[in-house]
Description:
Structural class of chain B: mainly beta
Largest sheet of chain B: 7 strands, mixed
Number of strands of chain B: 11
Radius of gyration of chain A: 13 Å
Distance between the termini of chain A: 36 Å
Shape of chain A: globular
Structural class of chain A: mainly beta
Helix content of chain A: under 10%
Shape of chain B: globular
Order of helices and strands of chain A: EEEEEEEEEEE
Strand content of chain B: over 45%
Radius of gyration of chain B: 13 Å
Helix content of chain B: under 10%
Oligomer: heterodimer
Amino acid sequence: QKEVEQNSGPLSVPEGAIASLNCTYSDRVSQSFFWYRQYSGKSPELIMSIYSNGDKEDGRFTAQLNKASQYVSLLIRDSQPSDSATYLCAGGNTGKLIFGQGTTLQVKP
Amino acid sequence: EAGVAQSPRYKIIEKRQSVAFWCNPISGHATLYWYQQILGQGPKLLIQFQNNGVVDDSQLPKDRFSAERLKGVDSTLKIQPAKLEDSAVYLCASSLVGGNSNQPQHFGDGTRLSIL
């Protein structure tokens, strides 16, 4: 099992819909989790961090962490074409981040 | 607040040549990371510095890659000699602290390296 796994997609949703991005992780990655957005040809940009079980909301974004099931998700409400990008899930352990391969999101007008 | 600065943005070299990348982290950030991102993959950590000491270089191909952060601020990553498989984007990131604390990492714009 990879340490951090994501479905590469693409995930296609219509404008205004909720986009749901998922990530699973192994026992080696357990302390904290981050979601980064990466536009084509650009560097990763941090959009959410989550450290404990439950939900964390920030504007249109909600991160969810379930340590018992070892998954973390990102919900994007009212998706916009400008949200079209690759979303990277990263898990942290002892100061090191391990990234998944990313999920490409396409929001169609 | 100025972000992580990297240069050059693009580099094209032939295989077996050498290349160097430079990174200046966000002011006050003690921890600096170099990542390699191959097209279609997530970033892979090459080396992590805490101030001017190496914390983790387990995935750095030490026969050809080297990195230093002599004064605990800016850093250089070198590849010598380059191979075709080194074609990738090299990302530098920094965070406020490292060690056992998982602080968010902030990335520079990266250097896109093409090997001919």
